[in-house]
Design brief:
heterodimer, A: about 400 residues, alpha/beta, seven-stranded mixed sheet, 12 helices, about 35% helix, about 15% strand, B: about 375 residues, three-stranded antiparallel sheet, 12 strands
């Protein structure tokens, strides 16, 4: 998708955020113009109209993931959902124990919420995934302790797009009476989610990763068996006391519409994106010394994360300004640190530093992909021409064995 | 339908909508992303932050964007509790539940908590704080203007007293902004809450203004946005709308203080003639808010009757209007339960017209007289 109006780069960063689908924007606008009521107002039609819209949207969220609308709690985004799930459940069930298990490759909102629990007297284990990014189920089993109260694992990873085996992990949690939270911010509209059958207690959703607006998300809280959470925000008692604060009607309506579109168009869209991914993969792996980060099979078609050896990541990003991509996730891309996710897979600093995340979506075209491949081929060639390391590699020098002189 | 419930939420101003639309409809990046899309989003947010800061005379670096007034209030309470574990929290008895509830929830964690009453005029007096409370109090929150009665507190005086006693001070200015002058720097206070959807901006966005003198532990952890004080991808379109609404708040204030105040006086004169009791009648109040009750008329019956005739008003605040509980604000002022139970709130908007108020008064007269007759027959 090239925004010709402003001569913007081609957007290949759908995992950072997606554009709002025009159909979503259209649905939202009446609720910031004529139907502007506060859904908590019970004494007039402005309030009733807003409330009805909020409840319709709640049904749409529930339909996409096969849940009961009463299991959906609105939040301001996946960060809040993750914070509410992790702190809310671990506090409510703290009598069971104070040990939390999560993955070292989780989103910051999960890692940092767990860290906050640690500051409040909990213990945490941050499991390293296998080199392909997936959690080893046997290793997971052996990490469980009698005082493990909560496990949090993301369905689809934001950096490498791998899909964890939520069913297997959840079944083990059930057997051990552990609350299981899943961050599904990157999963909606990309993988089928059926909460009727999935052994998941809490699940976080975001609108703006699924062509909805920013500033709204939801948390699924299972009713059967009933899962309880301690509210983190207190106030007017909205959302059955689980999350206070005036509901942002137009944003909620937008999320509902975005999830409706996802439900109806997911299968067709995924087929199309799969073809684009295959094309991108084929084109980019024609470049020498490329390494795919994360499992290629258990992965959403929207993501390709590739390390280009002997190329410095930041210079590469500067060189490919015609496309908008990221090195690592948006939330950490302002820092020059190599991706902690790739480090957790055991990638060297060099390979982690030379990685690019390509994430494609609804508006990506075949010519976008062709342009990207051509651009990368050209620029990487150029950068490597300037690289003494590349020259040494081509001369057959084993760089691992080179002893560098101290300065 | 004539909307007279502007303290619950306001209609988005067309100029605000116009500024927001491009951010809702065209490609927008994640402000944290290090490419053109991301940088553009980032720049737009910083421009909006400046507008918000200017509207309350604060520095842009003091503005933390949150998702609601409720979140701002929870952020300051929780942030103080974590950063200062020996805190003793005080709050006025008329605070919105999003101040009183998070403070009360701290009791379980061992914090000292004091609810300080207001007088029968709805006014908070520092002299009502007992010596014993004052000696250990470390944090005080008093709202600038009450959402139900509209009573405006003398925040400057309370803030001075708090400063002299080395007490951290926060004010919830959600209902005040855009109706009276709000000057964060002149007040010289530690923290303040403002919200977009009460000033003709979109729902889903608010701010906490914080003086850097105080430490604040973040309430939500994650990507470290808002200088680590509020993680979560920024709600760009809403932030842009909030910025525009703040920019317009000063001109709204002038209109409220002049035109709308006259409409309120007309309305209140008619109410008194009909025998209504206006709560906090003689206190300094917002120029848009009238909270009243009729002794012999059931409030909810009158509310329904007015709704049928096309007027949207409220019984107390939106947040508690789904419960049949009488207003905690009135009860804490010592108002009789019966009178409190029947209380109704009219809150005018910046666009409310003289014709609308005249129509409302006409309808109110008819309905009140009709209901009075019914009551008389029943008696």
């Amino acid at each position: 998708m090239k925004n010709k109006l402003y001569d913007m780069p081609i957007y290949m960063d759908y995992s950072a955020t997606t554009p709002v689908d025009p159909r979503v924007a259209e649905k939202m606008i009446p609720y910031i113009t004529e139907d502007f009521g506060n859904p908590a107002s019970r004494s007039h039609p402005y309030g009733w109209t807003a409330e009805k819209a909020v409840e319709n949207a709640r049904k749409e969220i529930a339909l996409l993931v096969n849940a009961d609308p009463r299991e959906i709690v609105w939040t301001s985004g996946a960060t809040e959902s993750n914070n509410l799930a992790i702190k809310g459940a671990s506090n409510f069930y703290s009598k069971k124990g104070k040990h939390i298990i999560t993955l070292a490759t989780e989103h910051k909102a999960v890692i940092d919420a767990v860290r906050e629990c640690e500051r409040n007297g909990y213990e945490a284990t941050y499991m390293e995934p296998e080199p392909n990014g997936l959690l080893d189920i046997e290793k997971f089993k052996s990490t469980i302790r009698p005082d493990t109260v909560l496990v949090s694992v993301m369905l689809v990873n934001n950096e490498i797009g791998v899909i964890q085996d939520i069913t297997a992990i959840g079944n083990i949690c059930r057997e051990n009476n552990i609350i299981f939270h899943v961050d599904a911010a990157q999963a909606t509209g990309k993988v089928k989610i059926d909460l009727e059958t999935l052994p998941v207690d809490l699940m976080s959703f975001s609108a703006h990763k699924t062509y909805g607006p920013k500033g709204v998300g939801a948390l699924y809280v299972r009713r059967k068996p009933r899962i309880r959470i301690e509210p983190q925000m207190h106030g007017g008692g909205h959302e059955r006391g689980m999350r206070s604060g005036t509901l942002a009607t137009h944003q909620i309506v937008g999320m509902g519409e975005a999830f409706r579109i996802a439900r109806e168009e997911m299968d067709e869209e995924n087929n199309r994106i799969k073809n684009l991914q295959a094309k991108l993969l084929k084109g980019l792996t024609e470049i020498e010394e490329t390494y795919i980060n994360g499992d290629l099979e258990k992965r959403v078609p929207h993501n390709l994360n590739i390390s280009f050896n002997y190329v410095e990541g930041e210079s590469l990003i500067m060189a490919i300004k015609g496309i908008a991509v990221s090195s690592g996730s948006a939330c950490t891309s302002a820092s020059l640190e190599p991706s902690y996710v790739l480090r957790a897979l055991g990638r060297s600093d060099e390979l982690a530093h030379s990685s690019i995340r390509f994430s494609i979506g609804r508006f990506t075209t075949e010519s976008d992909v062709e342009f990207t491949i051509a651009l990368l081929k050209e620029k990487i060639d150029k950068l490597r021409e300037l690289s003494p390391l590349w020259e040494m590699f081509k001369d057959g020098v084993d760089l691992e064995k080179v002893e560098w002189a101290e300065h | 339908m004539i909307y007279l419930d502007n303290n619950a939420t306001t209609a988005l101003h067309p100029e605000v909508l116009k500024e927001m639309l491009p951010f809702l409809t065209s490609q927008q990046g994640n402000p944290a992303s290090n490419h053109t899309f991301g940088r553009n989003a980032h720049t737009a947010i910083e421009e909006a932050r400046e507008k918000v800061a200017t509207s309350v005379n604060a520095h842009p670096s003091q503005v933390i964007f949150t998702s609601s007034g409720t979140e701002s209030n929870n952020t300051i309470i929780n942030g103080i509790a974590k950063a200062y574990p020996d805190s003793h929290f005080g709050f006025s008895s008329i605070e919105h539940p999003c101040i009183s509830e998070p403070i009360k929830s701290l009791v379980h964690q061992g914090f000292m908590v004091s609810e300080i009453p207001v007088d029968s005029n709805g006014i908070f007096n520092v002299s009502d704080i007992s010596d014993k409370t004052r000696q250990s109090l470390t944090f005080l929150s008093v709202m600038m203007a009450n959402n139900e009665t509209g009573v405006i507190q003398n925040i400057s005086e309370i803030a001075n007293w708090a400063r002299e006693n080395k007490i951290q001070f926060h004010t919830d200015a959600v209902q005040a902004l855009g109706k009276i002058k709000v000057d964060f720097e002149a007040l010289d206070i530690d923290a303040m809450t403002i919200s977009s959807h009460k000033i003709y901006g979109p729902q889903g966005i608010a701010a906490l203004i914080v003086n850097k003198k105080i430490d604040l532990s973040p309430f939500m952890q994650g990507g470290g946005q808002e200088k680590g004080l509020r993680s979560g991808t920024e709600n760009i379109a809403a932030i842009i709308g909030f910025g525009k609404a703040c920019e317009r708040s000063n001109q709204n204030r002038v209109r409220f203080e002049q035109n709308i105040n006259l409409l309120k006086l007309t309305l209140e004169k008619a109410l008194i003639e009909l025998g209504a009791i206006i709560f906090c009648e003689n206190s300094r109040r917002l120029s848009n808010t009238t909270f009243f009750s009729f002794k012999n008329i059931d409030g909810s019956t009158l509310l329904t009757a007015l709704d049928r005739k096309g007027f949207a008003i409220a019984s107390g605040s939106a947040c508690s209007s789904n419960s049949a509980e009488p207003s905690h604000v009135l009860l804490s002022m010592g108002v009789d339960l019966d009178l409190a139970q029947g209380a109704l709130r009219v809150s005018l908007g910046v666009e409310t017209t003289e014709n609308e108020i005249n129509d409302f008064i006409e309808t109110l007269k008819n309905e009140v007289n009709r209901l009075k007759q019914l009551t008389a027959v029943a008696a």
